[in-house]
Amino acid sequence: MLNYKGGSPAKDGFYWKKGEWEIVTVDGENGRLPGDIECEYVRLPALLFVPAAMMLSVPFVVFLPFIGFAMLFVLIGVKAGKGVGALSRAFAENLARLRARVTETTEELVTEIAEDMSTGTAEELATESAEDPVTDTAEDFVTDNAEDFVADYAEHLDSPQ
What we know:
Blueprint: E1 3-5, E2 9-10, E3 13-17, E4 22-26, E5 31-32, E6 40-44, H1 46-119, H2 122-131, H3 133-158
Antiparallel strand pairs: 1-6, 2-5, 3-4, 3-6
Helix pairs in contact: 1-3, 2-3
């Protein structure tokens, strides 16, 4: 009988486990095969053990370099992915801080311009415009376009980015 079940008594020798392609050795006259009844073993004669072991090791030897390269590429990919993720998080945080800072500065500038425009009296503007024609042109431009600028900027702040 060449087929044996797990847990059954067996003579010393080499046994091949069918389901897992594993070679098990049993020492002594009254040895037992490992596993339960579901495990099936085939007894290998001593002369057949060496060629059987070589046949089982050929796929391992052939594919070992490919497995090593695959593991190396997976390791590099995982490390690169973690690095890119960390860089993108840092970039997003810095971009959010910069956007908040720019928004705050712009709002302060708009408020300051609006206050400056509201504090000027007609007499001050007339005095300044009589002194410098360029100032007169600039003040006319600011006076005419300030309300439009503030309204456009307010719409820009309210719109989703």
